[in-house]
Design a protein that fits this description.
The complex is a heterodimer of chains A (397) and B (574). With 397 residues, chain A is of the alpha/beta class. In chain A, helix 5 packs antiparallel against helix 7 (83-96), helix 16 packs across helix 18 and helix 20 packs across helix 21 (356-369). The mean pLDDT of chain A is 92. A four-stranded parallel beta sheet of chain A has the order 2-1-3-4. In chain A, strands 6-5-7-8 form a four-stranded parallel beta sheet, sandwiched between helices. In chain A, 52% of the residues lie in helices and 8% in strands. In chain A, helix 21 links the parallel strand 7 and strand 8 (374-377). Chain A is built from 23 helices and eight strands. Chain A has three domains: 12-100, no CATH class; 103-259, Rossmann fold, CATH 3.40.50; 266-385, Rossmann fold (3-Layer(aba) Sandwich), CATH 3.40.50. Chain B is an alpha+beta fold and 574 residues long. Among the domains of chain B are: 5-95, Uridine Diphospho-n-acetylenolpyruvylglucosamine Reductase, domain 2, CATH 3.30.43; 102-244, Uridine Diphospho-n-acetylenolpyruvylglucosamine Reductase, domain 3; 247-346, Alpha-Beta Plaits (2-Layer Sandwich), CATH 3.30.70; 485-546, no CATH class. In chain B, 39% of the residues lie in helices and 18% in strands. Chain B has helices spanning 5-12, 21-27, 55-67, 120-128, 146-152, 159-162, 196-213, 222-225, 258-271, 282-285, 311-327, 335-343, 370-380, 411-416, 419-425, 446-450, 452-465, 485-509, 513-519, 528-545, 549-567, and strands at 17-18, 48-50, 72-75, 92-95, 102-106, 111-115, 132-133, 169-176, 181-185, 233-241, 243-244, 247-255, 276-280, 301-309, 331-332, 357-366, 385-391, 397-406, 434-435. Chain B has an eight-stranded antiparallel beta sheet with strand order 15-12-14-13-17-18-16-19, sandwiched between helices. In chain B, strands 5-6-10-8-9 form a five-stranded antiparallel beta sheet. In chain B, strand 8 (169-176) and strand 9 form a beta hairpin. The relative contact order of chain B is 0.11. The model of chain B has no long low-confidence stretch (mean pLDDT 91). Classes of the chains: A alpha/beta (397), B alpha+beta (574). The interface between A and B is medium-sized, with 25 and 37 residues.
């Protein structure tokens, strides 16, 4: 069989205590309600497959991809099994055996040909800046202190263009020396990794590294937590390059928090807006970015955050991560609806998050449920709350 | 009886029924990894899994299965290891986890009614927002269901102050094996009080039965259903007592020897009434990597827990705790370490990482007997890797949980090694204790566990409510096992060989040549000796077929012990 032979996961199916902690928090299980779709069942099936030396088939692969890789199972595992890594290892096996699902294969083809999973192509990566000043466009490819790595979702999806625009607005406001990759930016490699194609992940990662090295940056800012996490950990795992040692990596909230501390941002008083912050799974559980976004919200006068029942490390997935939206869009959107129900019992009129994937999932869920709530990223909230620069300088004088 | 799945789907809903092999396999097991030999006496899998969505639907399902004489096994989230949810005779597993609503909260009288499929964690998360908590909840609260845990009973977090988990149950609603619905105790349903007519009919039937059996000594009908693994009915709704969530102060200390720990624990229970009190012995703490290098914890006996009360009560208790430690030579651990141990209360299975498999054994014994039991267990398991821990109750008893570390991939040694679990459990009597739970594997001790009088009553009630024995067969009451083909073949050939051997050897030894001639005469088409042999085979087969689980274990465990001695090399303590 050899699925996990001589890997760090060799003993994992046997170490599992079958306590069920993972299954209870799994968003897919909560939706599908049968154990075979939860982590405990999935691991048990892997164990049975190993024992019986059964052939891996497409149904096995389908169930492996019915997982958002949100990492909640890993965070509650009694025996500390790195389940998120184990699922990816198992997916790698399905990719290598050619039994991955058609949507996954299709999007990987797009990644190979266009550098993004949506068959958009490099030229669409700069569409978001069409209405912005020429000075912003001129920053592409210019050496600077900070590189803003936009990520496929925010760069190419029309409905998410407000995210890079808001981050650029904040950077311009705070006179940050930044640069952009423009059309040279490609996927961070996360999608290839989630689908198990390590070879192409390595190729695409190398491309990004080559592009960055020319810019002589010291810091990299991410608007997508998955990109951040991939740069931070997977580049080392796949290419053996410790990115975090070479560059300072920053999430949007960490970056804005820093600007706040340096008093580079000034805010307009808002009119008593209650928001609820949704911690993206990767930010809260893998990057431990929990206090920064809340600090940022607190800093804006008139904005109040109310946490949902499941928040911080215990946050629940939006359903859009880990290729789930690609493998089973229905389950993915049902998970987002489930999370939105939790939002609906708070007094919040806005749902704030830090991840473009979450924004996309919740925007869709507001349509399917008819629940009216504004979904924004933290950067969008901050950008629209900034005081007019002229007013600031007027006050200063 | 073959199950008509389509009929079942019509009753329960298509999405709530599964006959998918993979799903069936998952729902046919609990947390223990049974050796393949276990499936010689129980079925490996259920035939169908059903997840009812409402009490009404459950009633219909039970009635349908009863009419078709199909075995039913109720299930929560499968977080126990006593075999209570295993498919002893196949049939249908009824998983209750879809019925997980909160029904009613009575904040003034601090009572809460829930559907039995809700997990303790979900319930706790909710009521803690109201400033309440539960007197007792299991260490497996994250996944264990309310119904599952009260149907098996046991100690949990809070038992040092409030005792067994069953003491907080005020009332329950049960769908009986005969398909009737009953409500007993103080079940508060509030505005969701539906099915009243059904419940009235059921309660009338129940009253008649209890009246007829009353002289057998049962005083509280709740005792029929709590801790009896759904052998009489499936618990659907439960009213639990809640308590105000007062201040919680965790503590932890370590000892060089177990006797000092027990003395300190006894003193604490008497003088300071902690909310929770747990111990981990040196065999446990020497293995946890999270304790490596901590001189006051690694390889020491650790006592940890929490006080609950007002700030003044906690101040007093901390003072008592310090004095007790001084008297019994304990070392107080820092607040950070105390908090760590308090957080770890929910993860007793951490130790499994070192197995990777575990063979568990658990007893309930008087606290005073713990040091002697500890020593004897040590000597019994001197050739094994193991870890011991336990939880203190409020009535002078403590659980004694032994995790024997093993590796199920080494099939022979793992299978034969299971005798150790039964060996530890069998020590209960010697130390004035009893098994921790009955389930499937401890049915031989059910009489002592429930008490003779009560057990006799339970048997009589079982005959009335479930004369076909379809509800959770073999659990609690034992009975005839479902022997696998291999066992039947073993019985047949064993009997055949034994009879033939006797037919050949005995006449020669006793010099009864005439008997030899009769048995093996060539003048008849089939020699009589062969008929004797075949008769022996049939007797052997019938013997296996008639084996009860109690007898199967009585014969099987010594056999495992013997095989282990012959074939298994020593596992030295790490």
């Amino acid at each position: 069989m050899g699925i996990f032979d001589e890997s760090e996961h060799e003993d994992d199916p046997y170490i599992c205590a079958a306590c069920g902690n993972c299954t209870m928090v799994c968003p897919v299980f909560r939706q599908m309600k049968w154990e075979s779709f939860g982590p405990r069942g999935r691991l048990q099936n892997i164990k049975t497959t190993l024992k019986k030396k059964e052939k891996l088939d497409e149904d096995y692969s389908r169930k492996l991809f019915l997982c958002s890789l949100c990492g909640h199972c890993t965070s509650v595992c009694t025996t500390s099994i790195r389940l998120d890594r184990l699922w990816i290892r198992a997916r790698t096996e399905t990719w290598e055996r050619g039994i991955s699902s058609a949507p996954v294969r299709f999007s990987f083809k797009s990644l190979e040909n266009y550098g993004d999973p949506f068959t958009m192509g490099p030229s669409t990566r700069t569409l978001w800046m069409e209405d912005l000043d020429q000075s912003v466009k001129n920053r592409i490819g210019k050496p600077a202190e900070i590189l803003y790595f936009i990520g496929c979702n925010a760069a190419t999806r029309p409905q998410l263009q407000g995210i890079p625009q808001s981050i650029v607005k904040i950077m311009e406001y705070a006179d940050v020396d930044y640069t952009l990759l423009g059309e040279k930016e490609v996927c961070c490699g996360a999608l290839f990794l989630w689908g198990g194609d390590r070879k192409n992940a390595a190729r695409i990662m190398t491309k990004n590294i080559e592009a960055i090295e020319k810019l002589k940056v010291k810091r990299i800012l991410f608007s997508c937590p998955s990109c951040y996490y991939t740069w931070k950990t997977s580049y080392q795992e796949i290419l053996g390059i410790n990115i975090a040692e070479k560059y300072q990596l920053l999430s949007t909230s960490q970056f804005i928090s820093e600007l706040n501390r340096e008093r580079k941002l000034e805010y307009e008083e808002q009119h008593m807006v209650t928001v609820t912050y949704h911690d993206p799974c990767v930010s809260a559980r893998k990057l431990n970015i929990i206090s920064e976004p809340r600090e940022v919200i607190e800093k804006i006068p008139g904005i109040y955050n109310v946490d949902m029942l499941h928040s911080k490390e215990d946050t629940r997935c939006c359903g859009n991560h880990g290729l789930l939206a690609l493998s089973d869009p229905l389950v993915s959107s049902q998970i987002a609806e489930m999370r939105l129900r939790e939002v609906s019992v708070t007094p919040a009129s806005r749902l704030i998050t830090e991840c473009p994937e979450c924004v996309r999932a919740f925007e869709l869920a507001t349509t399917t449920t008819g629940y009216e709530i504004q979904v924004q990223t933290l950067s969008q909230l901050v950008a629209e709350s900034l005081k007019d620069k002229t007013t600031v300088s007027g006050e200063d004088s | 009886m073959k199950i008509n799945v389509q009929d079942l789907e019509d009753i329960a809903g298509v999405d709530n029924v599964s006959i998918d092999d993979e799903t069936i396999n998952l729902y046919s097991r609990d947390i223990s990894s049974l050796p393949p030999l276990a499936y010689q006496i129980i079925k490996r899998n259920f035939d169908v899994i059903v997840q009812p969505e409402s009490v009404k639907s459950l009633i219909e399902i039970v009635r349908f299965l009863k009419t078709n004489e199909v075995s039913i096994v109720p299930r929560g989230n499968g977080t126990s290891g006593w075999g209570g949810i295993l498919p002893s005779k196949g049939g249908v597993s009824i998983c209750m986890t879809q019925m997980s609503e909160m029904i009613h909260i009575d904040e003034y009288q601090t009572r809460i009614t829930v559907e039995s499929g809700i997990t303790w964690r979900e319930l706790l998360m909710f009521i803690e927002r109201l400033g309440l908590t539960l007197p007792v909840y299991p260490s497996s609260a994250a996944a264990a269901t309310v119904g599952g845990f009260i149907a098996s009973g046991g100690l949990g977090i809070g038992s040092a102050m409030h005792g067994n988990v069953m003491t907080q149950v005020l009332g329950i609603e049960v769908v009986l094996a005969n398909g009737l619905l009953i409500r007993i105790g103080d079940l508060v349903l509030g505005p969701k009080d539906d099915l009243q007519e059904e419940a009235r009919l059921g309660n009338d039937w129940m009253k008649t039965q209890l009246d007829e059996l009353r002289n057998n000594g049962v005083t509280n009908p709740l005792d029929i259903f709590l801790g009896t693994y759904g052998a009489f009915g499936i618990i659907t709704r439960v009213t639990l007592k809640a308590i105000p969530k007062l201040m919680m102060h965790s503590f932890a200390c370590s000892f060089d020897n177990i006797s000092d720990l027990i003395h300190a624990a006894n003193a604490l229970l008497e003088e300071a009434t902690p909310y929770h009190l747990r111990y981990q012995t040196d065999s446990y703490t020497s293995k946890l990597t999270s304790l490596t290098g901590l001189v006051n914890e690694e390889g020491k006996h650790i006592l940890s827990g929490a006080f609950m009360g007002t700030v003044y009560q906690i101040e007093d208790n901390v003072e008592r705790f310090n004095k007790i430690l001084e008297l019994h030579l304990g070392t107080k651990l820092s607040d950070i370490r105390a908090k760590f141990h308090w957080a770890e209360r929910m993860f007793p299975l951490r130790i499994k990482r070192l197995g990777p498999s575990l063979v568990p054994a658990e007893l309930m014994v008087p606290i005073s007997k713990l040091p002697a039991l500890f020593e004897e267990t040590r000597s019994k398991l001197k050739n094994s890797k193991y870890a011991i821990e336990g939880t203190f109750g409020s009535d002078g008893e403590s659980s004694f949980l032994v995790w024997i570390l093993d590796d199920e991939r080494k099939t022979l040694s793992y299978t034969f090694g299971w005798h150790r679990s039964f060996d530890i459990s069998s020590m209960a009597k010697k130390f004035d204790g009893k098994p921790y739970a009955i389930g499937l594997w401890n049915v031989s001790s059910a009489n002592e566990f429930y008490g003779k009088k009560h057990y006799r009553f339970l048997r009589k009630f079982k005959k009335r409510v479930d004369p076909q024995n379809i509800l959770n067969p073999l659990k609690v009451f034992g009975g005839r096992v479902e022997a696998a083909k291999e066992s039947l073949a073993f019985g047949f050939f064993g009997g055949l060989i034994a009879a033939l051997t006797l037919g050949l050897i005995v006449p020669n030894i006793l010099n009864l040549h005439w008997l030899n001639e009769i048995l093996w005469s060539q003048s008849v088409p089939i020699p009589l000796g062969l008929i004797v042999g075949l008769t022996g085979g049939i007797i052997g087969l019938l013997f296996i077929k008639s084996l009860s689980i109690q007898k199967a274990l009585r014969f099987g465990v010594p056999l495992l012990r013997l095989l282990a001695k012959v074939f298994v090399r020593k596992q030295t303590e790490a």
